[in-house]
Design a protein that fits this description.
The chain has five helices and 32 strands. Strand 3 and strand 4 form a beta hairpin. Pfam families: CADH_Y-type_LIR, Cadherin.
């Protein structure tokens, strides 16, 4: 009786003429599945619970026939194709109540170890199934998902299996429809349950280390061959096999360590230096003796510990003083210590007086046990006149291995203070003397420094004396042409002070030429009298010198001015001394210098036109 569809036929006859246009519907093919109303053409289902899984499509032949007319009973037919749509009216069902699976114990976590399937006769989304593991024995080691293509349940491994620990796992799996139709809830639960039994297969497995990572420590001064730790691996298979160990050479190229192949003990193979390498990281491989191909690997970390090489010392040179009016038990200084070693966490320093100072009634050391100590007075009435300085040896000891200690001498100065303890007259800095450096040693060092300074001064003095001697010229020296006089002459008429013959003899001038191998320091331009036309003697002399300089290839390239003191015989120019020179330069005529060539161009410019002479251009 469920409504399917309605068909309608039309008749072209006149509906007012009898029953010619009246149509009656009937089913010619399609019974007993469907029925049709003769008047309205409504098609309905004729059988209850039609099952799509039995038959999906139906062809129904419908006839429409009029009721009268001269021809009487004319009819027409049509075919209706009816397809049943699926509804979720069938629950999933397992084909069997128990599934058996065999799984190797070496199966990887996350891998699929088996499949089970429940059957749902519905189609499309109504046939989609969801699988779940019922909590119980072994269910926490496995997981199940649905294959969307085949609607199978895929069982996966969540945790590793071990045959030696457990051989069989049993749990239940529930299959249910993912999309439910509320119209069919009364049919019953749309789910089914089956049991899964998994048998773990024993496999030949590699050895298993007792730890995932091994961490060890060793001191940097450990002798070669010292055992610093061990690794352990076991064969957990039923037929247990012995295990052999070796170091992965790729991780320890320099072979700083060795391992016993049987016992697994690790020993040093080289001297270790923490300053060079503070940590080593390498791998140990374990293999079964019965099957060497089955191996396992573990990382080993070895930390090199610093050896306590340096003793602790007082951190800074303290300036310690005590008042003359100090009271017993008064703290006059808080001291701390430092260590050049890399101090470990929790490093502690202890302070005490040396054995020889502990019996003296002056000062004591109070260790506060927090890496600091206080210097305290043991008496009162310290007197500067009796003793101004006290030397207090303090022993500082660390807590590292091996224990190191040092004795540090502190200098305590007695000062005059007021009633409040403020220092009034103490401006000498306290000193800190390391053990082994006495006052005698300091005096010896200062004496050596003084001796070295004296040697250096003597050496410098001898060097200067030697340099002065080398500056003294000998008689054979070609440069010995400078004569020094300490008295001033009396002018041209004074001929007793020196031999003036050299100035009057041209041959002497020839033999004692002015040196031309060095450049004159300064050009001096003497004032001369005007040239005399009839003075042929001096003119010939100058021309002769001019010609010699023109043809001399060894003459220096610079301009030079040579002054000749020879006046010649009977010269009308008389004396060349500047004392008798004309009072003004305008009275002199130097125009003839321009006729002497380019070598005397500078002289011609200087003594020619006064306006054209520029002293800055003279070289």
């Amino acid at each position: 009786g469920a409504y399917v569809l309605q068909v309608k036929a039309t008749d072209a006859d006149d509906p007012t003429y009898g029953n010619s246009a009246r149509v009656v519907y009937s089913i010619l093919q399609g019974q007993p599945y469907f029925s049709i109303d003769p008047k309205t053409g409504v098609i309905r289902t004729a059988l209850p619970n039609m099952d799509r899984e039995v038959k999906e499509q139906y062809q129904v032949l419908i006839q429409a026939k009029d009721m009268g007319g001269q021809l009487g009973g004319l009819a027409g037919t049509t075919t209706v194709n009816i397809t049943l749509t699926d509804v979720n009216d069938n629950p999933p069902r397992f084909p069997k109540s128990i599934f058996h699976l065999k799984v190797p114990e070496t199966s990887l976590v996350g891998s699929a170890i088996g499949r089970i399937r429940a059957v749902d006769p519905d189609f499309g989304k109504n046939a989609e199934i969801e699988y779940n593991i019922v909590p119980g024995d072994g269910g926490n080691l496995f997981d199940i998902t649905t294959d969307q293509n085949t609607q199978e349940g895929i069982i996966k491994l969540k945790k590793p299996l071990d045959f030696e620990t457990k051989k069989v796992y049993t749990f239940k799996v529930e299959a249910s429809n993912l999309h439910l139709d509320h119209r069919f809830h009364s049919v019953g639960p749309f789910k089914d349950t089956a049991t899964v039994k998994i048998n773990v297969l024993d496999m030949d497995e590699p050895p298993v280390f007792s730890k995932p990572v091994y961490t060890m420590e060793v001191y940097e001064d450990t002798p070669v061959g010292t055992i610093i730790g061990a690794v352990t691996a076991q064969d957990l298979d039923a037929g247990s096999s012995s295990v052999r160990y070796f170091i992965d050479w790729k991780s320890d190229v320099d072979s700083y360590f060795t391992i016993d192949a049987t016992e697994g003990t690790i020993a040093t193979n080289e001297l270790l230096d923490r300053e060079s390498t503070a940590q080593y990281n390498f791998s140990i491989i374990a293999s079964k003796f019965s099957n060497p191909l089955l191996t396992s690997k573990v990382n080993v970390i070895i930390n090199v510990l610093d050896v306590n090489e340096f003793p602790p010392e007082i951190s800074v040179p303290y300036e310690t003083s005590v008042c003359e009016n100090a009271k017993p038990g008064q703290v006059i200084q808080i001291v701390t210590a430092v260590d050049k070693d890399l101090s470990p966490a929790g490093q502690r320093f202890s302070f005490r007086l040396s054995a020889e100072a502990s019996n003296k009634p002056n000062f004591t050391v109070h260790d506060y046990r927090n890496n600091t100590a206080g210097i305290e007075t043991r008496r009162n009435d310290y007197n500067r006149r009796q003793q101004e300085l006290y030397f207090l040896p303090v022993v500082i000891e660390d807590s590292s291995y091996p224990v190191q200690s040092s004795t540090n001498t502190m200098t305590i100065r007695v000062c005059r203070c007021d009633s409040d303890g403020a220092i009034l007259s103490c401006n000498v800095e306290a000193i800190f003397l390391p053990v082994g450096l006495s006052t005698g040693a300091l005096i010896a060092i200062l004496l050596c420094i003084v001796i070295l300074l004296v040697i250096v001064v003597l050496y410098v003095a001898l060097r200067r004396q030697k340099k002065k001697d080398t500056l003294m010229t000998s008689k054979e020296d070609i440069r010995d042409n400078v004569i020094h006089y300490d008295d001033e002459g009396g002018g041209e008429e004074d001929t007793q002070a020196f031999d003036i013959g050299a100035l009057r003899n041209p041959k002497v001038i020839e033999d004692n030429k002015i040196r031309r191998d060095i450049k004159p320091d300064m050009l001096r331009f003497p004032r001369q009298r005007p040239s005399v036309e009839d003075n042929t003697d001096i003119r010939d002399f100058i021309n002769q010198r001019l010609q010699e300089n023109d043809v001399d290839l060894t003459a220096p390239p610079y301009d030079s001015l040579a002054t000749y003191a020879y006046e010649g015989n009977g010269s009308v120019a008389e004396s060349l001394s500047s004392i008798d020179s004309l009072t003004t330069e305008a009275d002199q005529d130097y125009d003839y210098l321009t006729d002497w060539g380019p070598r005397f161009k500078i002289l011609a410019d200087m003594f020619g036109e006064e306006e054209s002479y520029n002293p800055d251009k003279v070289t």
